[in-house]
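Sequence in, structure out.
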Amino acid sequence: MKKEIKIAILVLIGFLSFLWLEKPLREYLSLSLFEEEIAKQISGITIRIILIIITFGLIKKLRLIDFTGLKSWQNIKNIQAVFLVSAFILVGIFNNWSTYTTTKLELLILFTLSTFVVGIVEELTFRGTIFPLLIKSFQTTNRPVLISAVLSSFMFGLVHFINLFSQPENVVGIISQVFFATAIGVFFCGLMVRTENILIPCIIHALVNFSFGAGELKQSLAEIPDIEEVAGINWSSLIPTTIFFSFIFAGGIFMILKADKERILDTLKNE
């Protein structure tokens, strides 16, 4: 097994292991300081902020800064790639507007912050670290960027099987989460290489979480104790969800195929 693949697997294991710390922190906060939903949000935000710091340090250590575009973050290309998905985000925000306005202010603020830190840490981990490591590993193949995008996105999708521990009865729903997360992971990979800056997929990921993750707020309003965590996406119908994510997946593939493979490989070689 190549060194880059080993590092990518270790990054994934470390990411999952660190997320487990959220549960004891949530239990401590809910028992001593806050109501359960507030404790859930605070613990998730705290753990992910720490993960953001660790992952950014890892990107620097692995010399992936140039690939992510963070060295010259003002230099963003092909910004038109976000226009269509932005329209879907606006539709999601509009559809959930009444939920936002009827949620308690402190919970809404925490939910908003949570959606952004989740988007940022997942992009830094999967598109900023694992994705380029796999590209390095598969650089001698005909389509290293496409192969690496699909594999890193599949890893991103598989992470959602962790929800089976909290929802063991929801096997079909969790499998759907894995499929949808994989599809949108490919899109974020495409967005990353097309705009040449990880800040764009970070922002879009966070906005997708905010606009389509309002089901979490709806459940808190209904006082349902077990909240489903669906990668920031909660559509009311499987059919429109499947259509949407199939379109997103195809868009990601298109952007990856349009990306400058030689520039990407040169950037990673220089690092």
